[in-house]
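Deliverable D4.2, example record:
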Amino acid sequence: MDIAYIDYAGEPQETRPFMKLFTGLPENILVTLAYSMSKSFMMYGLRSGALVGVSSSQEVVEEMSRVNSSSNRGLWSNGSRGAQTLLAAVVKNPELQAVIVKERSYYRELMVKRAEIFMKEAQAVGLVTLPYHSGFFITVPAKDAYTSCQKLTQDNIFALYLKKGIRVAICGIPTSKIPGLASKIKESLIL
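Output generated by the structure prediction step:
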């Protein structure tokens, strides 16, 4: 399960209770959580994270750790020492943690605001989107996403085309440029 954006999905006490569902599972079930420290600690380009194994069997978790330690080192070596050192320093510094929590909260609310503007306009102009609850991206289904994105690029709108949709990064679009965006995306769609 990918929880890379969990710290942008709402207040921590609201976004984490589902994890209690993983307690008391049968020993033959292993739940893995992919966590991105680079996103949660506001160091987006400085790649670092963790794969957390949850099982009622200590033996299963230890096996997962051994297997991933060997396969990951064979594929991409070790994690970035700079990122690990920086993150360890943050964890040891409550003042710095408080600054990060405050800043992350600001950006989470900024994305909420941007998404509200976009989704309200999308509804008003009849632009269909995939369900959106939180996060960095909003996805619009599109039959020919590549051509739609090429049209958007001509209007200086840079979205990512997917096989069956357009991915809009509301995290990277200034709030002042969100109004009108849903209309332009709808106009770009090939029907």
